[in-house]
From TrEMBL:
This is ABC transporter substrate-binding protein. CDD domains: PBP2_MidA_like (cd01004). Belongs to the bacterial solute-binding protein 3 family. It holds the Pfam family SBP_bac_3. InterPro entries: Solute-binding_3/MltF_N (IPR001638). Keywords: Signal. Residues 1-206 form the Solute-binding protein family 3/N-terminal domain.
Length: 221
């Protein structure tokens, strides 16, 4: 919502925030029901066929541990050896951990143990009770929880499109003519420092970008 406010304020528009489900935004934007979607949407080759994108953040996955944990760095394959890590089944982050684990096993290192939870409450309990050593998922979620409760801390991040980089973007209908003004607004906020204030407020500074790009290479390109 903060990013949407920056864009609307820069363009002199009144922001009308419409909460919606993840499943609804593609049809909503394509049909003109919504002017734009600002919902942690990653740029992909397939999506660029129907939508235009103005990037505003790196797509980043974060490793979070209890604020009192002795763990201080999880950034590469060797760092997960022997750890119990909360991860979503069937997600890209699970695929990353499994690939890293395969590398570790070839080197004779201890395997990691995936911890699967049913919901957010179970995830929090597993981490705080010590049943899991770390959580690995979208950094935007981990950063929000850390800022809200102070009970967790970031100890490492990985590109969301690992091994390639990926970006999160404001998404508009392809050919609508909105993407250029949105990009201009975002770059203005970046230059003024307002953009950095928003990201730092929620602990997302590690995901900042130097400038907004229109329709960059995405996942699948």
């Amino acid at each position: 919502v903060d990013i949407a406010h920056l864009v609307a304020d820069s363009l002199g528009l009144e922001l009308n925030v419409v909460p919606t489900s993840w499943e609804d935004w593609p049809l909503g934007v394509a049909s003109g029901k919504y002017d734009a979607a600002v919902s942690n949407i990653t740029v992909t080759k397939e999506r660029k066929e129907k939508f235009d994108f103005a990037t505003y953040r790196k797509d980043s996955l974060g490793f979070y541990v209890k604020s009192t944990s002795p763990l201080s760095k999880i950034e590469k394959a060797e760092d997960i050896a022997g750890l119990r890590i909360i991860v979503g089944s069937g997600t890209n982050q699970e695929a990353i951990l499994l690939a890293w684990n395969a590398e570790n096993l070839k080197k004779g290192l201890k395997p990691f143990t995936p911890v699967y939870t049913k919901d957010d409450a179970a995830q929090t309990l597993a981490l705080q009770s010590g049943r899991a050593d770390a959580f690995f998922g979208p950094n935007v979620i981990g950063a929000w929880k850390a800022a809200l409760t102070g009970k967790t801390k970031l100890v490492g991040s990985v590109d969301g499109g690992w091994p390639k980089a990926a970006h999160i973007a404001v998404t508009v209908k392809k050919g609508s003519g909105l993407v250029e003004p949105v990009q201009t607004a975002l770059n203005g906020a970046i230059r003024s420092g307002d953009y950095a204030k928003v990201l730092n407020r929620w602990g997302e500074g590690v995901e900042s970008i130097p400038q907004s790009e229109i329709n960059p290479a995405g996942l699948g390109d």
